[in-house]
Amino acid sequence: MRRILDRVYDLSEWLAMASLCAIAALVFAQVAGRVVDRVIGLFGIAPYGFLVPSLAEIAGYLLVAASFLALAGSLRAGEQIRVSLVLARLPDSARRVIETIVLVLAAALAVFFFAYCVRMVLDSHRFNEVSYGIIPIQLWIPQAAMATGVGVFALALLDDLVTILRGGSASYMATGDGHAEEHL
Amino acid sequence: AAETTWDMPVPYGDTNFHTQNVVQFADDIKSATGGELAITVHSNGSLFKHPDIKNAVRNGLAQIGEVLGSRLSNEDPVFGLDSIPFLATSYDDAKKLYDASRDEIAAKLDAQGLVLLYSVPWPPQGIYTKKEIKTVDDLKGLKMRAYNAATEKLAQLAGAIPTQVEVPDLPTAFSTGRVEAMITSPSTGANSQVWDYLSHYSDAQAWLPRNMVFVNKAAFEALPEEQQQAVRDAAAAAEARGWEASKKETEDKTQELKDNGITVTAPSPELRDGLAAFGETMTEEWAASAGESGQAILDAYKQ
Amino acid sequence: MDLLVLALCLGLGLLMLLATGLWVALGLMAVGIAAILIKVSVPAGAVMATTVWGAINSWDLAALPMFIWMGEILFRTRLAEDMFAGLAPWMRRLPGRLVHVNILGCAIFAAVSGSSAATTATIGRMSLPELEKRGYDERMAIGSLAGSGTLGLLIPPSLILIVYGAATEQSIARLFIAGVVPGIMLAGLFMGYTIVWALLNRDKMPEADERVPYLERLWQTRRLFPVIALIAGVIGSIYAGFASPTEAAVVGVVLALGLAFATGTLTRRTFLEALRGASRTSAMIILILAGAAVLTAAMGYTGIPRALAGFIAEQQFSPYALLAALTVFFIVLGCFLDGISIVVLTASIILPMVEAAGLDIIWFGIYLVLVVEMSQITPPVGFNLFVIQGLTGYDILKVARMTLPFFCLMIVAVVLIVVFPELALWLPQTMLAR
Ligand code: NA
Ligand code: NA
């Protein structure tokens, strides 16, 4: 079970990273197209006018995928921000109780969010929602990436809740107090 | 009866003539129903952003809203009819086109649980450039702003280079030469103070895109009969008022362009003929994509 | 329920949730949902999904992970170290020395980035480790970073000015130009404070570097070339017409990769580490933005900010009193909402007031940016604080305390711009006179 879950988080993070690379690649292709046009212009050749169609919309959708698919990874690395000053002053036992309550609340919220993301995807699919730009993009596709990311995030919170209920320590604590600064 | 309150997200700011018309519309309803139906207008995309407004109304997150109709043209060609270049280029023609297509548009919205209330056009779209455009050949090789399939096609027909630029980026894009021509209304031109970065406006009257105001069907039908009637009456008044306001907007904003040193020209016969030819091509393509019902609308319009 | 009571309850609720250690983003969402459930009859879950989708699916926002990625790559090259080593001999005699690099770095980076979180994250990734390594006072290093990061919004391009320009139908070009002088002035105030602080706290400054002979100093300066090439490449790509400001972020990533490759620090491992770091950090910031969007939608439905602004409108203040009241109003609102949300939610009520008071709309835009910029560094909801907590692991409250002097300097800047409106208006009037 542990291994499957870790695989899921990993896969989700890889997809997020791939989305970031895709944004960079598409945007860079557009910029390079302009540079090429300028250069061939110097030789009196008419510009080619290379266009990455719907670039702004696609980049926005990839950003959604990148951000939400990375949630579980960033949570488990302790990168998600929370205020820990108050918690740090409590005795261990009280701290554990509050930590559990916080995880219950967080997991409930994430599951609720996930459910409505799924509804949004189904709704967009049913009404054939498409983007407005040059290429009509089915909106349920990027929305499904968002729903998946939120779902994996909810899973990660439930995972930590179970861990802490069994007396273990949550993944995001592994790096100190929610702090994952690497020292190189 | 208990007071009903509706939220109404609209995309444009408070100074925009569409928004001002909407505010008047909301006031009319409030007084006609004796305060029983109160509409809160959320301007400038402050409740939902433009791309999300239609879905928000469909899902009942807001009861009533306004969008630029042609934003939906990728969903169904009928929404893009008002934005076919050089098909309907005057207020009279735009009205005829709207009358011919209104039932079809209303039916498409109805299928999504939305009731079309009224529709008001923007001023006719003209060509903004840094140099004078005398014939269509002057557009050849210019980087022309394209933001959807239709504007991309138009640029291609003109031999221009379709270029994507987001609205807030336009000043930088014109100043640094990433874009050299755009087609938009004198309203948008004057409101974004185009004289800071370009010099010529050709009043080509390419098309008159319309905004649509629609209401969630379930919310509408939940109203008592006399309130529904009040909404319909206010909508009819807003539509009549909006078309007049749009005409006045065209005059005022064109004057504002002139006052600020933009060279405003009427298109020469050569330019007009060249552009009209593009219009015919695009109308044919539209008819092919819109099928029988589309052809029926065009036939009704051309009568 | 009375709106003021509801506002107080929501504010307290948020503080309590955050105090228990609930993640900031989820706390914002929870309070937003609670507000919708209490006050309006729309499905809160659907509002959350639609709002978050609408807020994050954004071209402008795409620059954020790209800039953070660029910072992560540079952090793994020797570039930051080189930059500080190249500058150190020249800054020797200036009190405050390399702290100024923090401020100037943010000011220069602000010329390409429209967001303060991206500015803080990118510059901080490079400067904080270097300043720490060289023994600089931590409070000063962190405070100056958090403060200067806000320049991202004032120095063009600026996301807030774009939103304000759209809301008021003002020229974005004019607003951008108007932000230049106040931006430089604010950077100047920060540097002035740094100088004074360094003179008063000589014991807290690290040992001065050895005095380097002039010729050797020039030779050291060669280490600045990669940085200069990078800055010139990114800014140049915009002004030469190759890239929009959003696209310039990707130019930055590509140039940073090129530099890393040229200096031999680009390996498969460093590439993936940088990418993973960028992905995690931007997911953190973006989830908080998503939470803020839910709270903003809730505020739109409940009408709390409108009602509060309307209360100010009823008072019939004189222009100066109005500005004082608005400043307090924006600072309080800025503790809980992000700057762009504040502008969007209150523009309809505030702008008529401002016009009635005879204030210039362009000038007011700059004033507004300065005031809502402060929201970036006030707890509990301040994006620069979150970014710095991510960088250092220090709790946001601690970071906020370190930033307090710079918050006060921003109030000084607001006073200056109110007393001397020409600071904002002179440049656009001169450059765009027709
Ligand atoms: Na900036
Ligand atoms: Na704040």
UniProtKB/TrEMBL annotation, chain A:
The keyword Hydrolase belongs to this UniProt entry's keyword annotation: no
Keywords noted in UniProt: Cell inner membrane, Cell membrane, Membrane, Transmembrane, Transmembrane helix, Transport
Function: Part of the tripartite ATP-independent periplasmic (TRAP) transport system.
Domain Tripartite ATP-independent periplasmic transporters DctQ component: 24-166
Cited PANTHER family: 2,3-DIKETO-L-GULONATE TRAP TRANSPORTER SMALL PERMEASE PROTEIN YIAM, TRAP TRANSPORTER SMALL PERMEASE PROTEIN
Identification of the protein by name: TRAP transporter small permease protein
Primary localization class, coarse: membrane
Native species: Pseudohoeflea suaedae
Membrane topology term: Multi-pass membrane protein
One of the record's GO molecular function terms: transmembrane transporter activity
Leader sequence segment: none
Keyword Transmembrane helix attached: yes
A GO BP entry: C4-dicarboxylate transport
Subunit structure comment from the entry: The complex comprises the extracytoplasmic solute receptor protein and the two transmembrane proteins.
GO terms for cellular component: plasma membrane
Family: Belongs to the TRAP transporter small permease family.
Any coiled-coil regions, as ranges: none
Protein location: Cell inner membrane
A UniProt-annotated Pfam family: DctQ
Residues passing through the membrane, by range: 12-32, 58-77, 97-122, 134-158
From TrEMBL, chain C:
Protein keywords: Cell inner membrane, Cell membrane, Membrane, Transmembrane, Transmembrane helix, Transport
Membrane topology summary: Multi-pass membrane protein
InterPro entries to which the protein is assigned, alphabetical: DctM, TRAP_DctM
Source organism, top-level taxon: Bacteria
Annotated GO CC locations: plasma membrane
Cellular compartments annotated: Cell inner membrane
Location of the TRAP C4-dicarboxylate transport system permease DctM subunit domain: 14-423
Spans through the membrane: 61-79, 99-124, 145-166, 172-200, 221-242, 248-271, 283-304, 316-337, 404-427
A single MF term (Gene Ontology): transmembrane transporter activity
NCBIfam families for the chain: dctM (TIGR00786)
Function noted in UniProt: Part of the tripartite ATP-independent periplasmic (TRAP) transport system.
Assembly and oligomerization: The complex comprises the extracytoplasmic solute receptor protein and the two transmembrane proteins.
Protein family (similarity comment): Belongs to the TRAP transporter large permease family.
Protein name: TRAP transporter large permease protein
